[in-house]
Amino acid sequence: MKKLFLSIVLAYVSSFSTAQGNQDLSKLELPSVAPVSPEAASLGKYGDLPVNLASGRINYSIPIYTIKEAGFELPVYLSYNHSGLLAEEDPGLVGLGWTLHAGGMIVRQLRGKPDEGSLGYVAGNIGKDYVVPFIEHGFSNMSAEAREAHLNNFFRKASSNVMDSQPDKFVINAGTLSANFYHNEDGDIIFRPHKNYQITKPTANSYRIIDDNGITYDFAYPEETTSEPITDNEQLAPPMIYNSAWALSKISLPTSDQTIDFEYTQEDDYHKQGISKSYRELIMSNGQVDSYSDFFAGHLISSSCTNAQSVITSYMETTVAGKNQISKITFPDGELHFDVRTAPAGSLNATNSYLHSISLYDNFDNKIKSYEFTYDNVNSNFKLLTKVEVLGQNDTEDNAYELAYYGTPPSIINSDNQDVWGYYSTTLLNSNYNNTLLGRKVTNFNTTLLGALKRITYPTFRLANRNNYLK
Question: pTM (2 decimals)?
């Protein structure tokens, strides 16, 4: 059955939490938000957020090379997809806002806990035993007492991330292949929106997709993520270990015995430390927020919070092992080589690497063309791509793309320096919370704009400007 955990459940969680007056709020686990590697995140974002002129997202691209075989085309290019400077974003190989499309990935957006875990949506039968029955009939087949106990158990554990409550989302982005899929409560794969694709798992750690043209895409290079709490909260769950992305390994064509093969290097582990803060208040059954400082005595993490309100803080350490960096694409007419270099020692670059060049070779190992990439500061976590040089066979410059931006972002941003939507803001208040008691952070357009693309000078010396119509 094609069921997702609907927002109605969240409303029930809200009403459920108001009745749990005797619960120790300091021991609730916060929902985990586990990032993937920067390259996987970049590709996943591009596949998940369509370019839309009405929303202000404008797509610019810089073509590198198009692989052609038996009527099939696979473009290799850079694309620009940026909506503002996010404080906790770690840009990928080609800098802030830019994504290298060379191969592809399946990227998992973890929602709660991994579906295949012991308390996951599929393997733990959470979807089958709790979510779908609640959506379909609200456990009306149970007695009132049994129903209340059953739901209280589920929502208590779901709200503290002990138990999963919705399926993970998987974003596919590989060449012209673009789709999203989920696993339903029976473990079946469901495309949303529907696609006429076949998808299987040849091994436990790989996916195979056949599109509606009979083209086969194999994703056989997983990235393993470990997310673990680094707080003294005694009820936080053990570390979660799961595959967060799968890199494209091969494309097979139905009308040719030739394949397109992708090779990767295993880069250093990617580490990300995140802080998650939750604001809670006790609302009585009559809808009033009352003063229950005596009741909450000994239960609040922050002693300064009174009037039945609590701030809960959780820290998560995320490590992505086996981070895949594209190194070579082999196709019938030649090869593309990707020169990925390590940032200097002491760099603030979270990925610790950057794309230096892409070179095209024929089948006789002759270099035909290359592209070299220049950045404003490879040591910065928010490095900006400033120039793409196109070089001929003798490494002489044929032409170039030059890029200009609105200002320069800081080399690194403290996670506290963000507004309520996550955009970089230096207008700091005394809290992260959007409520009348604790105030909120103020959006700052000027800091959000830092590092946004302003102008591209094409090889034909034609200028493309991103105009600012804000008045």
Answer: 0.78
